[in-house]
């Protein structure tokens, strides 16, 4: 699949992986729809994307505002007439122990990372069915396969996301719809700074492994290439996370022991 003149809608496009994906898709000639809550940051990203010559629609909204989803989809269709790729990148992480975490924090994480995505996907499926084509690109996480200490709620949301899109992939295959589930490891973004703590407030600290993570621009290049190749699942990250996934697949009984050795930081 080539992305020249394709309509690519990216949620969570104001920073991190979403921002890097916007630049990479723009460089490949796509027309973009950029969504997140912060309009000023979206405008900043849009200015860089426009230097590649494609059109950019800045469409700010909060993913948990479910009643607005139909309106957002209609706005994209009115502007471009179709949606070719929907990158579901908006989300929030977590750093807190299971017992200490207020129950409302669990609910909030699922509202952002899972239920809001399910609802938006339901609005876009009829569009893809009518077109007999379309690509969903959910940005899950290695945590959706191996959930480490202090990330129980986050890992659970990403595990749910992977499972949900397994069904979407099977149900919509006959309609020409592709699902490329992306599982990033440690990427050098500010995700841990904005993660929720046990009270639902910002964690505000940079994880050491995050600080040493893969460059977001390289991450974006790898993701876009994987989507173009029609990959069903794609891991992107470092050797540590890759090793963990390999052990889980080949020697799953070892994984609980490995997780107990992780420092609770």
Automatic annotation (TrEMBL):
Pfam families: adh_short. Signal peptide: none annotated. It comes from Aquirufa avitistagni. Keywords: Oxidoreductase. This is SDR family oxidoreductase. InterPro entries: NAD(P)-bd_dom_sf, Sc_DH/Rdtase_CS, SDR_fam. Belongs to the short-chain dehydrogenases/reductases (SDR) family.
């Amino acid at each position: 699949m080539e992305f020249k003149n394709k309509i690519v809608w990216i949620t969570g496009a104001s920073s991190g992986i979403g921002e890097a994906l916007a630049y990479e898709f723009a460089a490949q000639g796509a027309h973009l729809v950029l969504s997140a809550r912060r309009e000023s940051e979206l405008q900043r990203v849009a200015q860089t994307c426009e230097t590649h010559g494609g059109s950019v629609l800045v469409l700010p909204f909060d993913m948990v505002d479910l009643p607005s989803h139909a309106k957002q989809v209609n706005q994209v269709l009115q502007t471009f007439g179709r949606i070719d790729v929907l990158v579901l990148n908006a989300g929030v992480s977590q750093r807190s122990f299971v017992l200490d975490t207020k129950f409302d924090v669990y609910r909030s994480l699922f509202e952002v990372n899972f239920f809001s995505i399910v609802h938006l996907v339901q609005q876009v499926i009829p569009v893809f069915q009518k077109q007999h084509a379309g690509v969903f690109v959910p940005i899950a996480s290695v945590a959706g396969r191996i959930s480490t200490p202090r990330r129980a709620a986050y890992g659970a949301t990403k595990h749910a996301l992977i499972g949900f899109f397994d069904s979407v992939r099977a149900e919509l295959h006959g309609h020409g719809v592709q699902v490329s589930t992306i599982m990033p490891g440690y990427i050098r973004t500010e995700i841990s700074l904005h993660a929720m703590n046990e009270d639902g407030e910002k964690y505000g600290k940079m994880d050491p492994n995050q600080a040493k993570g893969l460059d977001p621009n390289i991450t974006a290049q790898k993701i876009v290439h994987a989507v173009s190749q029609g990959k069903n699942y794609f891991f992107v990250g470092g050797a540590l996370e890759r090793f963990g996934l390999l052990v889980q697949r080949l020697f799953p009984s070892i994984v609980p022991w490995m997780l107990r050795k992780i420092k609770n930081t």
